[in-house]
């Protein structure tokens, strides 16, 4: 695989550490405040924070849980999970955040990377 960057929150070189902000795993009672009082959802997201106003009396704008992951495109051809469609090219595959390797004719050429925390 070659270097790939998309408009997703992570941009990585396959096989190295990537950092991902996880808003869904932050327990409401342990939300660290982020942003001034009265901050809007757009303002909150612009400063890299999470916004959730569905839980009363808890911070609505809060810091995400930072997850460090290893992204690896060296996936055995028999373990590849298809990420594309018939005829997808390398650039289209990378834009989906997936790996591309056409050296195995009977395996998916566009496939999901192995991700470990």
TrEMBL record:
Domain P-type: 21-65, 71-114
Record keywords, A-Z: Disulfide bond, Secreted
Entry GO terms, CC: extracellular space
Disulfide linkage: 34-49, 44-61, 73-99, 83-98, 93-110
UniProt keyword Disulfide bond present: yes
Residues that span the membrane, as ranges: none
Subcellular localization: Secreted
SUPFAM superfamilies: Trefoil (SSF57492)
Stored Pfam families: Trefoil (PF00088)
Primary location recorded for the protein, binned into one broad class: secreted
Matching SMART domains: PD
UniProt-recorded name of the protein: P-type domain-containing protein
Source species of the chain: Engystomops pustulosus (Tungara frog)
């Amino acid at each position: 695989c070659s270097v790939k960057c998309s408009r997703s929150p992570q941009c990585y070189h396959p096989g190295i550490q990537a950092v991902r902000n996880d808003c869904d795993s932050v327990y409401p009672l342990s939300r660290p405040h982020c942003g001034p009082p009265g901050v809007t959802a757009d303002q909150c997201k612009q400063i890299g924070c999470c916004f959730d106003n569905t839980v009363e009396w808890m911070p609505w704008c809060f810091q995400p849980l930072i997850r460090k992951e290893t992204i690896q495109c060296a996936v055995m051809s028999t373990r590849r999970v298809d990420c594309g469609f018939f005829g997808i090219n390398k650039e289209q595959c990378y834009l989906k955040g997936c790996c591309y390797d056409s050296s195995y004719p009977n395996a998916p050429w566009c496939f999901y990377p192995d991700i470990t925390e």
